[in-house]
């Protein structure tokens, strides 16, 4: 007979179970024993937890003028979390693998990178280039991106936009500043991107980090603009021929580690995936009828997805489409009046325990 006082499960099985808990539950269970208390700082477990977590996507959005946000999870429903630990009024500019890049509202040029699940944050140093005040057209960087690979240490923050001298039109120079968390410094490079078009609010929000590159969809729908963070080089990535110059609404998302676009017409939602990144080969992975939500289609926006489901936001609702069962479900609805539509502040989010302060 076995030892009745021995563990019920092997340690590896216990770790696999704990790696599938919500972050809040994981931290709550730190008081169980010394070994569990050390788990959030154990390199092996952190890697395991993050590898499991990045397979799921949630949606975060602002629902009031406070620092409270909702998090909509396919399995766990709706929960709230706050960014009050930043002690500043902020708005989310980018999201990547559990980290958020937030801009201070009252003080332009102040940015934070935080993990709302662990409440850890880092204020970014100001660049000597005074980059925010020199971007065109609204005094802020046109593009803000956050790159975080859960399998590596550190993160990058990117700010880019057309340069203009005071009182002059933009001169065609596309200025890019990249913050490296390991060196705690900004680097700058300037590229000639004449006629590269502009960006809508949604194309700014939906920055995608895959294959070591950040991606933004051009508002003209001719291509995706990609930044190679290793070589500081911009690249144009072609869209599928069927939609590159079409009049349908197109949105850039990630799909299980692949670059993806979702094409919306009046009655169909078509999901494309870039099967081969180097050769820019796209394929259709799903075509979804929108007839049962026809009245919502003009104001609906896809926010994030996995191979199992797609989250979409309207002015006051968050919907999920289950791809296997082909069912739609309302996950959240704003009660009362709220000026900003949910899609305006919605971002894809993953709940991880990625740290912000590797090099500090």
Automatic annotation (TrEMBL):
InterPro entries: F-box-assoc_dom_typ1, F-box-assoc_interact_dom, F-box-like_dom_sf, F-box_dom, Gal_Oxase/kelch_b-propeller, SCF_F-box_component. Residues 9-48 form the F-box domain. SUPFAM superfamilies: F-box domain (SSF81383), Galactose oxidase, central domain (SSF50965). It comes from the Eukaryota. PROSITE patterns: FBOX. Pfam families: F-box, FBA_1. Signal peptide: none annotated. This is (rape) hypothetical protein. The lineage of its organism: Eukaryota, Viridiplantae, Streptophyta, Embryophyta, Tracheophyta.
